[in-house]
Amino acid sequence: MDAKTLCLAVLSRGDASGYEIRKQVGEGPFQHFQKASYGSIYPALGKLHEQGMVAVREEEQDGRPDKKVYSLTATGRQHLLAMLAQPAGEDTYRSDFLTQLFFCHMLPPEIAAARIDSRIQEYRDCLQHMDQKCACAAPGPRFVHGFGQAVYSAALTYLETNRDRLLSELSSSPAAHEGDAER
Amino acid sequence: MDAKTLCLAVLSRGDASGYEIRKQVGEGPFQHFQKASYGSIYPALGKLHEQGMVAVREEEQDGRPDKKVYSLTATGRQHLLAMLAQPAGEDTYRSDFLTQLFFCHMLPPEIAAARIDSRIQEYRDCLQHMDQKCACAAPGPRFVHGFGQAVYSAALTYLETNRDRLLSELSSSPAAHEGDAER
DNA sequence: GAAGGCATGTAAGCTGTTACATGATTCT
DNA sequence: AGAATCATGTAACAGCTTACATGCCTTC
Fold it and tell me: Which of A81, A162, A165, A167 sees the fewest Cβ atoms within 10 Å?
């Protein structure tokens, strides 16, 4: 999903400035399955405006810089609908964490342990954070939220229950890393 | 993780041609957490060769085009080790599927149902496929494989148990899509 | 006083994808 | 006959990230 469609999607939940859109994508409800930076959002909003998909109004604020608040037009809403109804592309998952663990026989076991431990902590924090802001009313967001929780919980549990087994396997195996690492 | 490092990682498991590397990344053991296309692998191998990270030998085959088989050099192995020991970047997950479901109140419920059902089937196929080729001997690959299974199973179970609830919620709610969709 | 949040934008550069180009062989 | 697999590579293009540029206000 490109930056333009993402902006339309976010705007369908209510008017927002570019800054606010980034916050919703980076820290808000979309955080776990979409990303976008300023460098992609501002140009996207510009193009959407040219194409008549969004309207802008400038809002003055005291003590703060002015805001450009964008809102969906009818055209924009139609376009979003068309995009949402289209079959979605495949999910993308990339993990350097798993890649490192895949090759953990080349690594000192302490490093592998440290990687797993910090990942466990990250998942814990993430789940706790999700619990707090679970005031999702609408069915869609609630469903997606639950999905995220289910997946993160499973990942956390797996790491917790298999950490020690992996480490003991590593310490009792050839330890390929030593020969190479200290040459 | 960039294409170059990925190539080094794959080569550490044994010599391979560009074609074979792509197959391992796209269909083999890395399939679920890394991706790479020919357009990124071949140039990456060229650069790695320039930098002395890999060695090449050409192998003639009868009935098949010749192969360029790459193998790690000592420098390449050292470099890989350094990359693996470095703290990994965050995992990336992007899902247009979840984005669509987040906004499912804008969609006809049949479409939402169809999306979930085909995703359920995909997860089932994927898990079955993983079961078959679970002949992972080494601790690292086995750990990573188990992680994937745990996560996919959790996702599947969630979809199976929450599908109907979502759909009944959708059919009993305002049905925002109707007004817009048929104008 | 420094750091961080609010706020908008541009531009260079990196990276990767898609499509193209080529060609033999084997399977259906 | 046509499709798929093996095999390598290039080039155009698209897209996103990072860093830069600016500036005020609030909190620590």
Answer: A165
Q: Tell me if residue B146 falls in helix, strand or coil.
A: helix
| Cα(B168)–Cα(B181) distance, integer angstroms | 20
Q: How far apart are CA A149 and CA A154, in angstroms?
A: 8
Q: Which residue has the higher pLDDT, B9 or B66?
A: B9
Return the structure tokens found at A170: 């590593």
Q: Is B148 exposed, middle or buried (0-12, 13-18, 19+ CB in 10 A)?
A: buried
Beta-strand ranges (E) seen in chain A are 54-59, 67-72, 92-94
Closest-CA residue of B relative to A119 is B90
Q: Nearest-5° angle of CA B117, CA B123, CA B125?
A: 105
pLDDT of residue B169: 94
DSSP code at position A55:
E
Q: Give the H/E segment covering residue B68.
A: strand B67-72
| Distance measured from the CA of protein residue B182 to the C1' of nucleotide C12, in angstroms | 45
Footprint of strand D on the protein (CB under 7 A): A 2-3, 35-40, 44, 63-65; B 17-20, 23, 38-39, 42-43, 45-46, 61, 64-69
Q: Which residues of chain A fall short of a pLDDT of 50?
A: 179-183
Predicted local confidence at residue A57, as pLDDT: 93
| pTM for the full predicted model | 0.92
Tokens of A155: 């990942």
- Cβ of A1 within 8 Å of Cβ of B97? The answer is no
Tell the burial category of A76 from Cβ atoms under 10 Å away from its Cβ (0-12, 13-18, 19+).
Answer: buried
| Short-list A57, A47, A42, A39, CA closest to A79 | A47
Amino acid at residue number B118: S
- Number of A:B CB contacts under 8 A? 195
Those of residues 84-123 in B touching chain A at CB distance below 8 A are: 84-85, 87-89, 91-108, 111, 115
Residue A161 to residue A130: CA distance in whole angstroms: 22
